[in-house]
Amino acid sequence: MTALAHFDHVTRRFGQVTALNDVSLEIDAGRIVGLLGPNGAGKSTLLSLLQGLRRPTSGTVELFGASPSDYRTRRFLGSTPQETALPPTLRVGEVIDFVGKHFEDPVPTAAVADEFGLSTMLRKQTGALSGGQKRRLSVALAFVGRPKLVLLDEPTTGLDVDARRTLWDAVRRQHEQGATVVVTSHYLDEIEALAERVVVLGGGIILADDDLGAVLDRVGLRMLRLRTPDVAAVSRLTSVVSAREEEDGSHTFFTRNADAAVTELVHSGIPFGGLAVRGASLEEAFLTLTGGANGAPAVEGSSRS
User: Fold this and answer.
1) Which domains does the chain have, with CATH numbers?
2) Confidence (pLDDT) at 283
3) Fewer Cβ in 10 A, N or C end of the chain?
4) 16-23: which pairs have CB atoms within 8 A and are 24 or more residues apart?
């Protein structure tokens, strides 16, 4: 099967900053792909190349087998950028109608509004919408043209928990109707809720590219926070990935197996106190995996080609 999107050894630089470094990646039809990574990882740059908004410094980007810079190619692409910009004086229904006019077979405005919980807002000016309502409308517009591929860049920014889950349900239904979706997020729960395949970006390179379960195992770090006079000895425990010093003088140790780390710590005889265990946030896990939390890189880069 021909890939919907293809990156072949793509590098993109902005002056002295390398946003993407020799990235090779394919996006096949029929799946929801989660694109994970901290700020500055290269997620938005990758999507901008796929939308034809930027060109690679080197390498090749293809969309539906052609150049993303060709507007005819982008007819089958839907997207929602991080920043929501809507004409403030137009009504919600008018905005959906306007976007639909750009496509041969758009989804009817009423159907789009119903799918994304906008039916009661059709006559409301977009300038009067809340930030969350604007975000929902922005995501809805990505699906108006019945696209083959949809790019959602941080789609639930500004939404509360219930609104996020409602939006996830709508995205799943669109996927079931044939849309392939690429979604970027900082939130591990969002990727868990939506994605089947996960690509992890860090420092402009692909750190991992695998099915959801395999990637969760690799970034699912736990944190042990404690006080000890022998930080070096705790850091040398086989279950510990890396460590960092906290402002209060305690230390946090990252581990993939908290139970094993605590057992090893107790049996080692190393003096410690004030032990607390919690899951690492996605940001903390990525910093550790890429060496940014005083640790060496713990994930080998991989990609699909």
Assistant:
1) 5-217 (3.40.50.300), 221-289 (3.30.70)
2) 61
3) N
4) 18/204, 19/45, 19/204, 20/45, 20/46, 20/49, 20/56, 20/204, 20/205, 21/203, 21/204, 21/205, 22/59, 22/205, 23/59, 23/204, 23/205, 23/206, 23/303
Per-residue pLDDT, 288 = 64
Burial of 165 (0-12, 13-18, 19+ CB in 10 A): middle
Report the alpha-carbon distance of residue 174 to residue 263 in Å, rounded: 47
Q: In this structure, what token pair is assigned to residue 22?
A: 């020799």
Which phi and psi angles does 17 have, rounded to 5°?
A: -95, 125
Percent over 90 (pLDDT), the chain:
66
